[in-house]
Amino acid sequence: MGTAERKAKEKEELKARILGAAKKLFAEKGIEQTTIRSIAKEIEYSVGTVYVYYKDKTEILHDLHQQGFAQLGGEFRALFHVSDPMERLKALGRIYMKFALENTQMYDLMFNMKAPMEFIKANEDHHWKEGNATFDALRKTVQECLDHGYFKGHQLEPLSFAIWGSVHGMCSLYIRDRVKAATGQEPDQLMNSAYEDLMFMFSRK
Amino acid sequence: MGTAERKAKEKEELKARILGAAKKLFAEKGIEQTTIRSIAKEIEYSVGTVYVYYKDKTEILHDLHQQGFAQLGGEFRALFHVSDPMERLKALGRIYMKFALENTQMYDLMFNMKAPMEFIKANEDHHWKEGNATFDALRKTVQECLDHGYFKGHQLEPLSFAIWGSVHGMCSLYIRDRVKAATGQEPDQLMNSAYEDLMFMFSRK
DNA sequence: TTGTTTTATTGAACAACGTTCATTATGTTT
DNA sequence: AAACATAATGAACGTTGTTCAATAAAACAA
Which residues of B91-126 are buried (b: 16+ CB within 10 A; e: fewer)? Predict the structure, then answer.
């Protein structure tokens, strides 16, 4: 029957509106200021309604973190037309860093905050498919680099993780306000120079 | 007069007890469970008393983060008897990582959480002396490495930051539960292998 | 010792948070 | 039109960090 379908669609729509409001507030004010009440106010519904569509806040944050991975994943996929693996690796890192610096709150949610992982632990089968897919893109590229004679003597898995960790670390220190505070340098400039330094070392045959 | 001195000492003592209780709860239960009320309960004082000695929670967390840096700084200083700079660099990284994995909550506070930096911004002159001192130990060692012909063509400042970021990134991903979730590997083992991989690349002349 | 003043401690009360759930409103079906 | 099902509500609960008038304790002065 048609009513059931329409209702299902309406429910989907409202859920999407909730998520949209959360995303907006999240990007604008950060997670601290993104309360359930503020989300409800944004879409002009009551607090209770939010809880009809989302069982708790971690589920909202998990959905949000998925959107972030959808975006980053898309940008990653677009880079697979770069055939030279080392060039692609550098490009992947650049895009990753750009994403982090331009979407600090979202990056923080994806790679630093505990909420999404807690949701996965509690509701899904401990399997972080978004993280896996993204890491796969890196791993695949690193494997091709190995095949082309780069990273001689290194093993795929730890090497890939080390590369991920390296870029993530700089982004993380940036987002969590440690860069300027510790180095005294202009952060954005330092980030770029440091990234070049890293990639230079990585790309030595 | 003697009473004033004694009183000052007693105040110091109680403040230290508050911090000690905070440290204990913090290490045991994590920051989420370390509430002002739980600290007050631990030392058998009322909530109000805590606020006589600490103006707010960020100040407690800042003092705690200082203790962490005192410990890490001490371990760093002990490594300066290693004369070979590259050996020392490797040792510094190892100790840093060991500290992170063995004191996850404290490391998180020192390098990830916002509270200590917010306190510094609001109360001190924007100068993160703990971070500066620690970064200096790294920078000094990196400079000696440069003097010994390592890292040819790199600049001290961005290079040092890149190295810090690399190790921090792996620790951070570990602490924030992304390692196993994304790689599917046994985390501790992966951390060690990845660290070796990094240091191998760093130490190439 | 007694009265006065200063200092230390208290815990009820506040605002804001995530969350719940009986109640109300709306829409659908018979 | 009545009966039923679904959706939306917002007051209320338990916790959080934080404040502050009231109380207790200690120090000082006579």
Answer: bbbeebbebbbebbbbbbbbbbbbbbbebbeeeeee
